[in-house]
Amino acid sequence: MPSTPQDWLLITVSTPGGGSSTLRVYAWRKLRSLGAHYLQQSVCLLPATPQTQRAANRLVSRLRSEGGSGELLRINISDPKQEAAIIQAFQRERTDEYGEVVERTKQFHDEIAHERRRGRATYTELEESDADLARHKKWLAAIRARDYFTAPGSEDAEAAVLGCEAALAEFEAEALSAELDGDQNLTAPRLRAIDGGAG
User: CA-to-CA distance for 180 and 169, rounded, in angstroms?
Assistant: First the structure.
């Protein structure tokens, strides 16, 4: 937790009723991607950093330009206990997300094990697993970017993703070996017995 008073951004959003949901979905997704903590519907908090300030300014500007409304206030929370509770809420949300990463990586290992049992250590399967690993890495990086208060669980999530990387490297070696063995079988000379009996 911060040892000095934390500046906060209090953000309120409102989108025009009866119109397209596109703007409402955009605002929700943007605030969630930033890791905003909702105090109530359409009212949320973010720690004030140069990055969150810029992103929130852009969001409010877009809301206003497209018929909605939004407010952005920089505030301090005077009650240390209240601020500590808010920081803990941020940490819980990130810890839950780290836990989801760990759960998804179990599915990654299960899929590789399934393909191995099927004898499907092929380049195609490798590409699919490689894409899955890239998604896990991107997801973990996104959570870290909004983990403003070093939530528990980050090390477990990182270890889980590294475990996927190691499993994929092993699977890749198997796929390469299987492909090379197949190529050798195709190119090996085939001997044909010739009847050399006297005519």
Answer: 16
C-alpha R_g of the chain: 27
Model-level pTM?
A: 0.82
For 100-124, what is each residue's pLDDT tens digit? 999 999 999 998 888 878 877 777 7
Query: Which CATH number fits the domain 7-76, given the four candidates 3.40.50.1440, 3.30.70.240, 3.40.50.300, 3.60.40.10?
Result: 3.30.70.240
Of the candidates 176, 163, 172, 174, the one whose C-alpha atom is nearest the C-alpha of residue 137 is: 163
| CA separation for the pair 54, 51 (Å, rounded) | 5
For 32, the token pair is 């969630």
Give the residue extent of every domain in the chain. 7-76, 88-186
Q: How far apart are CA 60 and CA 71, in angstroms?
A: 7
Q: How far apart are CA 155 and CA 178, in angstroms?
A: 35
